[in-house]
Specification:
Number of helices: 11
Oligomer: single chain
Helix content: 25-40%
CATH topology of the largest domain: TIM Barrel
CATH class of the largest domain: Alpha Beta
Strand content: 15-25%
CATH architecture of the largest domain: Alpha-Beta Barrel
CATH superfamily of the largest domain: Alanine racemase
Shape: elongated
Bound molecules: pyridoxal-5'-phosphate
Number of domains: 2
Number of strands: 20
Structural class: alpha/beta
Mean pLDDT: 92
């Protein structure tokens, strides 16, 4: 994907996502629209949404909460997470490690992507001081063992064995095919971890956008059995990510409830034991923190609209997850409210698949140049943008009050 063209260096930090001109901090979405009249899509990060949301999760999940950085590697979001009390991060590559180390120097990093090249292990261990890893096969454990050699105290290094998610337990986005040791292997890898002198723990990931608390309970039961059968005293269980974002169909209160249910299930299954509980949500953590302002480029006579961003940009998750995003309509005069009709919505590229999977209700008098503000885009929206067709250039702004703040008000009512 990288070339000698004048493309930005990386998608992290100051990459394709650029800081908006000057001091891009606004109180409301309309302030941004009036001041900037943005022709590029703008990711709006809301500090107040971040604080409210992260606090809400922490109330439901008093155990150790990690943020899975891959879901939203925006600098603003990482810093806001830290300000809200998050000091643990799940990182998946040396780039993510360097990013978090730079922004939150004292953070605890969990390199829980079980697939690492030897050079990446070296970098993590010796350049960045990472001491927590996940593995899901013997080769992964042995690679860590070789890299550590006699250079570090093994007791100070924690290795989590990642369990395979049973297919029946997998959530919306299935991780079964690619990751996880089956029960028998998990037992022997856990034993070997301990025999090599490392601290042993367990982890899993039930699948992204998993709205079934029973999947977590089932995997916690399996963790219990594996710990018992291996006779290894595990130090922690990390239930992974997977927690659902409150896309239409799932109320915000319900999405939070998943965290309390998992906390309760853990308490029942590991009753009274000195085992740490961790979770590392990505999507559910980040979705409500970021919204996006897109502009209408073209309207066909049949009413269908073309936006300046689509599924090769911030809306890539439409391909994988059944989701509908909250939306509002703006022009400089204010929010456009009134009679509407359902229309097809397309992205800007020449690719026919660059289309929303559902029709959107838009105001009858929507015009070219008006803006659509979509909420809940923080889970993988900013993370997976591409340069396809020459698009994929964004600005980023801080906006205190966005469409996302409304979801907190409607805590327990279905969206
Ligand atoms: C992707 C990932 C996460 C975050 O998953 P979500 O479904 O976004 O919560 C957490 N842990 C690991 C190891 C992952 O790969």
């Amino acid at each position: 994907m990288t070339s000698e063209l004048a493309l930005p260096e990386s998608a992290y930090g100051a990459g394709v996502i650029e800081r908006a001109s000057a001091d891009a901090a606004y109180r409301k979405t309309l302030d941004l629209i009036r001041a900037a009249e943005p022709e590029k899509p703008v990711f709006c990060v809301s500090p107040s949404a971040a604080h409210t949301h992260i606090e809400n999760i922490q109330k439901c999940f008093p155990a150790r909460l990690l943020f899975a950085v891959k879901a939203c590697p925006l600098e603003h979001v990482i810093v806001l997470a830290h300000e809200a009390g998050i000091s643990r991060f799940d990182v998946a590559s040396p780039e993510e490690i360097a990013l978090v180390r730079r922004l939150v120097p004292g953070s605890k990093l969990f390199y829980n992507n079980p697939i690492r090249a030897p050079g990446e292990i070296e970098t993590a261990l010796f350049d960045h001081g990472v001491r927590r890893f996940a593995v899901d096969d013997r080769a992964g454990l042995q690679a860590l063992d070789r890299a550590v050699g006699n250079r570090l105290k093994r007791k100070k290094i924690e290795i989590a064995v990642r369990l395979r998610t049973l297919e029946k337990n997998a959530g919306g986005h299935d991780f079964t095919r690619k990751f996880g040791a089956d029960d028998k292997d998990a037992i022997s890898i856990l034993k070997e971890t301990k025999a090599l002198g490392f601290e042993g723990s367990l982890t899993f990931h039930p699948g992204s956008q998993c709205a079934d608390a029973g999947a977590y309970s089932a995997l916690l039961e399996i963790s219990r059995e594996i710990a018992d059968k291996s006779r290894v005293r595990i130090s922690a269980v990390n239930v992974g990510g997977g927690f659902p974002a409150p896309y239409a169909g799932l109320a915000y209160g319900r999405s939070l409830e998943m965290f309390s249910k998992v906390q309760t299930a853990f308490g029942n299954i590991f009753d009274g034991e000195k085992i740490k509980l961790r979770a590392e949500p990505g999507r559910a953590f980040a979705a409500p923190i970021v919204s996006i302002v897109t502009q209408v480029k073209h309207i066909r006579p049949d009413g269908s609209i073309f936006l300046n961003d689509g599924i090769f940009g911030a809306f890539a998750e439409f391909e994988y997850i059944e989701m509908r995003l909250p939306v509002r309509f703006w022009r400089k005069e204010g929010e456009i409210i009134g009679p509407s009709r359902s229309v097809e919505v397309y992205g800007p590229t020449c690719d026919p698949s660059d289309a929303f999977p559902y029709q959107v209700d838009v105001p009858l008098d929507l015009k070219v140049g008006d803006w659509l503000e979509f909420g809940l885009i923080g889970g993988y929206g900013p993370a997976t943008v591409t340069r396809f067709n020459g698009y994929g250039s964004y600005e980023i702004a801080t906006v205190e009050e966005t469409i996302n703040n409304a979801i907190f008000a409607s805590k327990n009512t279905p969206a």
